[in-house]
Write a structure and sequence with these properties.
Blueprint: H1 16-22, E1 24-30, E2 33-38, H2 43-53, E3 57-61, H3 64-102, E4 107-113, E5 116-123, E6 126-133, H4 135-148, E7 161-168, E8 171-182, E9 185-193, H5 209-219, E10 224-229, H6 236-247, E11 254-258, E12 269-272, H7 281-288, E13 295-298, H8 304-315, E14 319-324, H9 329-338, H10 343-349, E15 350-362, E16 367-371, E17 374-376, E18 379-381, E19 384-388, E20 400-411, H11 414-421, H12 426-436, H13 442-451
Parallel strand pairs: 2-3, 10-14, 10-15, 11-12, 11-13, 13-14
Antiparallel strand pairs: 1-2, 4-5, 4-9, 5-6, 7-8, 8-9, 15-20, 16-19, 17-18
Length: 464
């Protein structure tokens, strides 16, 4: 006996072999969960189904013959529908990546919802809905992404990370893949790394003239640690790679430990962490230190192990570069302490801290607008006319064209080190830094960007 029409999309979550082996078939969603028919209720099978759907399972017992007949009937229909939609899904897969790369999108989010799957893209720092697709198309695209990034296609409970390479107009792009189980299914996040370095020199990164002079002076030092901090997507890796390129010559030996390698540089010895192959961070770091490095770059300080290697390498005389997540420059020091580094070693190892973020840059179609008095980064902006977004065909009527660097640089000089070791109040340390390094601060950099008309003053409230 074949049941009335079932929700075929449910079959995406349960492969045919599993359904046939355990004689179970999902039929429809209900307010209490997913209804399945089965010839017997087995706890292990129900638990597996609960993980597959990430919802409660409501079992209904039918005869073995009835369940088998419905499995054969509906999976045949499902497979035919998938085959007919395969070409569309393949085209959709290419459309997603082609569109994202052509717009210089930084991230793609593939997010299952109750009524479909949303695809959102981060453009100029903001997430925008690209389109909503069916669960059938999502199944095809998610499986292809997992296969190409060497992830386990049957694993949905645990988060997985991988990398795929996508070719667009003859150029290969590294795309970092991350999966996460959420209430409606498995979300996939994709970070696009634009391998062609559009910045030819450090000056192109967006630092002002005073900052460039300071950077060149301290980058040339033979030891000490430089750390870049900022939120995800703030351009830390781009800045880091440009520093390495700037220092790369036949007189120095440069090594990197990355997870993964985002941009390959000729003449630099780059290593990628691969836990499955036994290439752990600890193992790579131990071997690199035996190879006489002058400069060591660690992609990110994310735990006590990476923090200890970075700090110890710096204090014994190597030049070290890395990134860390911290809200501002001073917080970098406390973040290292949180990771188990003593205050003395944290201070002793550091030479320069750069905090940065990317803010939306106004398109050339910008207009002047009267704005009320505002205080941003301790600076009062009197009521007056400042540039604001307008919108034109070139900027797709958003009023913005890309993003621009907002940064600050702090040199950890002897006075700052003494103040930290003497446990001076943070406010006192910040006052000294503001007085000594004001020309290199967020506050000063912000003032330049607003006065030059590169940014909209009201946008700066969110980064204050």
């Amino acid at each position: 006996m074949v049941l009335e029409d079932i929700e075929l999309d449910l079959l995406m979550y349960v492969n045919y072999d599993f359904a046939k082996k355990f004689n179970v078939l999902p039929t429809r969603r209900y307010k209490n969960g997913v209804i399945v028919i089965c010839s017997e209720i087995r706890d292990d099978v129900m638990n597996n189904l609960k993980v597959m759907f990430n919802e409660n399972i409501v079992p209904y017992v039918q005869s073995r013959e009835t369940v088998e007949e419905n499995i054969s009937y509906y999976y045949e229909i499902f497979n035919k529908r998938q085959a007919s939609s395969g070409n569309y899904a393949e085209e959709l897969y290419d459309e997603i990546f082609d569109t994202a790369i052509s717009l210089r999108v930084s991230d793609i989010h593939i997010e299952p919802q109750s009524d479909g799957v949303n695809i959102r893209m981060r453009y100029n720092g903001d997430l925008k809905l690209f389109k909503q697709i069916s669960f059938v198309s999502y199944k095809f695209i998610s499986t292809k992404i997992k296969v190409l990034s060497n992830l386990d296609i049957t694993e949905k409970r645990l988060s997985q990370d991988g990398k795929i390479i996508y070719t667009y107009k003859g150029i290969k792009y590294n795309i970092r893949v991350s999966t996460l189980l959420v209430s409606k299914g498995e979300k996939i996040s994709l970070r696009i790394h634009y391998n062609e370095m559009v910045y030819k020199t450090i000056e192109d990164l967006g630092f002002n003239e005073d900052q460039i002079s300071l950077l060149e002076k301290h980058l040339s030092k033979r030891n000490g640690m430089t750390i870049l901090s900022g939120p995800t997507g703030s351009g830390k890796s781009t800045t880091l790679y440009k520093f390495i390129e700037h220092l790369n010559n036949e007189k120095v030996s440069i090594y990197t430990i990355e997870d993964p390698i985002e941009y390959e540089i000729d003449g630099v010895n780059q290593s990628s962490v691969n836990e499955k192959a036994g290439l752990t961070f600890k193992e790579i770091a131990k071997n690199i230190l035996r190879h006489d490095p002058d400069i060591l770059m660690i992609g990110e300080i994310r735990d006590d192990e990476t923090a200890k290697v970075a700090v110890s390498s710096s204090v014994v005389g190597h030049k070290v570069f890395s990134t860390i997540h911290a809200k501002d420059s001073i917080s970098v020091i406390t973040r290292l302490e949180d990771l188990g580094i003593s205050d003395f070693l944290a201070i002793d190892s550091l030479d320069m801290i750069i905090s940065q973020r990317l803010v939306k840059k106004l398109c050339k179609c910008k207009k002047r607008e009267s704005v009320d008095e505002q205080v941003i980064f301790n600076t009062k902006y009197e009521k007056g006319k400042y540039y604001s977004p307008k919108g034109c065909e070139k900027c797709k009527f958003t009023g913005y064209s890309g993003r621009i660097l907002l940064s600050e640089i702090i040199i950890i000089d002897d006075i700052i080190k003494d103040m930290f070791l003497e446990k001076k109040p943070i406010n006192e340390i910040k006052q000294y830094i503001r007085k000594k390094y004001f020309k290199y601060s967020f506050e000063y950099n912000m003032r330049e960007l607003i006065q030059s008309g590169d940014v909209y003053i009201k946008d700066m409230e969110i980064v204050n």
